[in-house]
Write a structure and sequence with these properties.
The chain is an alpha+beta fold. It is built from eight helices and eight strands; from the N terminus they run H-H-E-H-E-E-H-H-E-E-H-E-E-H-H-E. It has an eight-stranded antiparallel β-barrel. It is globular and about 55 Å long. The N and C termini lie far apart (76 Å). It comes from Denticeps clupeoides. InterPro entries: Dimeric_a/b-barrel, NIPSNAP, NipSnap_domain. Pfam families: NIPSNAP. Residues 154-251 form the NIPSNAP domain.
């Protein structure tokens, strides 16, 4: 019968089979997000009754334009779309809160005391079958979403990552993004803070579906893009692509 002479021998033996992890000194949100701004983003997914989609778009345009123009509300519409390919009869809205969580809290407090907005929510609820949202931060190495003229189609690529892989994802994409700038297709890159966690959204703009295919094929001809894909694919649990059409009032056209 074999036995260890003392506890230190047992500790040495166990250490051979334990994976040592270096302690991280900060959260991945602080390591990956932009330091020069304190903007917080919210993305909304609204599933609309098919017969109500047109009325929903008109109602949303009226309310969002009011909020977008009102300087008393520290929020702005970045983009609004209807899904073309993906979930049907769906609206997607991206908001920016300049000032982070305090701005979000201020905006929500004001809206809760806004009678017109309460009426809007009541009317909107009759048109929806489901809705969900997420709070996002912006990757430091991505382009900041800015208004652009159209016509364009937009692709929202959503990646559900394995827990614990966000830093690795960011390290690889900090290098990979340079391969996707030639046609000005990169709009914005975000990761979730509240809602479903370890979710990444990449937003791209293309003239049309053929331009999308040509642009993506061009990336494969650049040395280094294949390595980026090779190292990031194992980090993904599942992924989804939406092709979206901007609404008339969207700053991203």
């Amino acid at each position: 019968i074999c036995s260890f002479s003392d506890s230190s021998d047992a500790g040495w033996f166990r250490s051979m089979f334990v994976h040592k992890v270096n302690a991280r000194k900060d959260t991945h949100s602080n390591l990956l997000s932009k330091k020069e701004t304190s903007s917080l983003y919210k993305i909304q997914f609204h599933n609309v009754k098919p017969e109500c989609l047109e009325a929903y778009n008109i109602l949303s345009a009226e309310v969002q334009n009011q909020l977008h123009r009102d300087e008393n509300y520290p929020c702005e519409v970045v983009g609004s779309w209807n899904t073309w390919y993906g979930d049907q009869d769906q609206a997607v809205h991206l908001w920016r809160y300049s000032g982070g969580y305090p701005a979000l809290t201020e905006c929500l407090d004001k809206l809760n005391h806004n009678k017109e907005y309460k009426e809007f929510r009541k009317e909107r609820s009759k048109m929806l079958t489901a809705r969900r949202n997420q709070l996002l931060l912006e990757f430091s190495f991505w382009n900041e979403p800015k208004p652009r003229s159209g016509p364009n189609i937009y692709e929202l690529r959503t990646y559900n990552l394995k827990p614990g892989t966000m830093i690795e994802w960011g390290n690889h994409w900090a290098r990979a993004i340079k391969y996707r700038q030639e046609n000005n297709e990169a709009v914005g890159g975000f990761f979730t803070q509240i809602g479903e966690l370890y979710v990444v959204h990449h937003l791209w703009a293309y003239k049309d579906l053929q331009t999308r295919e040509d642009t993506r094929n061009l990336a494969w001809q650049k040395e280094g893009w294949d390595a980026s894909v090779y190292y990031t694919v194992p980090l993904i649990r599942n992924m989804e692509s939406r092709i979206m059409i901007p609404l008339k009032f969207s700053p991203l056209q």
